[in-house]
Amino acid sequence: MGYVEDLLASNERIVYQTRKHWVAPLFATITGTLLTLAGILGLLWQLTVDPEDSGWARTLHFVLLWGGLLALVVGLALLATAFVRWWSEHYFVTNQKVMKVSGILRKSADGSALEKINDLTIQQTLLGRWLGFGTVTVLTASDQSNLRYTAMRAPMEFRRAVLDEKQQFEQQDARVIAEAVRAASAAVPAAPEAPDAADITATIERLAALRDAGAITPEEFEAKKTELLDRL
Asked: What is the rounded radius of gyration, in angstroms, for the C-alpha atoms of the chain?
């Protein structure tokens, strides 16, 4: 976890961690899966052939035995590579971003900040619903930067974790903006000359938006609106 912690900001923390479903390696190397199955079937089938029956039987026994062994070895090698890649991939949701970390000797990390995420979509086949995996697409402000995670384990939980953290991030951001507005309003003295009515109206509209977003209370909005209208 040391590498992942080095990627985090000083005030950033991990709130959810997952990886792809165990079926991901099987889908990642269809060739390896088919070769492994073919090798097993070939070895089992050659057990039913008696090499002493005829020349044809001996040839079939030889082909099934060595062909099955070759297919099994190659298939297992491909599957092993896919499983190592699957084991080294981790997906994190922090209070600031979604992040994928992969690799053993050569590490890589990519993802997207929560503020850039618009939504997450989930696609599940019948097998996916049965085994609990699906394809998660993270929709960002730019279509070119959309993130697509196939065979994600428990995709609903992953989506919920991302959207919950995004909501908290936006609420915190709104609170920070509201505090800045309050501080700026308190620091600026009332101008001696009559303020512009258009500026007052625009300020009230911005305060209303902060009230609707939950950044300031209705009481604070009404008090500030009364103060602004009294300046007219």
From this structure: 30
